[in-house]
Amino acid sequence: MKDKLVNIHLKVERSEESLVAHILFTNDSNEEVYLDKQTICLENKTHRSVFKIINEKRDKVHYKGVLVRRDVLPEDFIVLKVGDKIETEVVLNEVYEMAKNHKYSIQYSVFHPTYLDDAGFTILESNTIDVLY
Questions:
Q1: 32 lies in which domain range?
Q2: Number of domains observed in the structure of the chain
Q3: Mean pLDDT value across residues 43-64
Q4: Which whole-number Å values give the CA distances from 117 to 78, 87, 88, 122, in the listed order?
């Protein structure tokens, strides 16, 4: 996957009990893009840390969710055709050590495995959102 083939837009929704990240992946390229289902949180859950979250003291917020170690296989990818979009969401306070009444800077930021390339990774990053939880 080449750089910037996928446009990633992050929106964060806050409620009394949760902080939900909505991630929109858009294929703005002229070719199909292969995205790893786990890395993009296709089932609305994380299997590793895929967000960069910084608190008001500029400290990194720790991931407390499930960690899945796996071999990435071709069947783990979905195809995003030219112009297609897919949106996923994750309840951040369920998988990161976040406390209410604190300010956070949040970005979807992850090393994404490259389709059919055993050693390849591409950095995928969204816009950054500042939010008070």
A1: 6-132
A2: 1
A3: 96
A4: 15, 25, 25, 11
